[in-house]
Amino acid sequence: MRKPVLLAAAVLLVVAGLMVFLWPRAEAGTTTAKQSTPKHTVELAITDPKPGDNTVLLAVTERNGNPAAVDRVSVEPVMPTMGHALTPLSAVAEAPGRFRAHGHLFHMSGPWQVTVVLHGPSGVDRVPFSLLVK
Prior knowledge:
Elements: H1 2-22, E1 30-36, E2 40-47, E3 52-62, E4 72-79, E5 84-85, E6 89-95, E7 98-106, E8 110-120, E9 123-133
Antiparallel strand pairs: 1-2, 2-3, 3-7, 4-5, 4-6, 4-8, 6-7, 8-9
């Protein structure tokens, strides 16, 4: 009875270690990532991601490369491994297809999922990004 429990614990530790090692890392400097859905392409940039206040810059284009026609953009931070979700940040338009969100994005270090939510004439589009906050 004791061997299966120890084996399961060892496997869990190895998997957790691999997740931390292989997860995209946020080093000092600007972290950028690009993701696409059938409707949009979003490029996300965060300078020195850390617990506390952060600024997120977003470039949003239609799949044809033109700036996206979206009415509202928000950034939703979730830490799936801990079951944490923070209040979404609203992004402010700076130029066509360019947005900035600033505020308390992460409350601790570790692996986070940041979902950019786009509301526009074509409906709602959710674009997820994985990030390791140090």
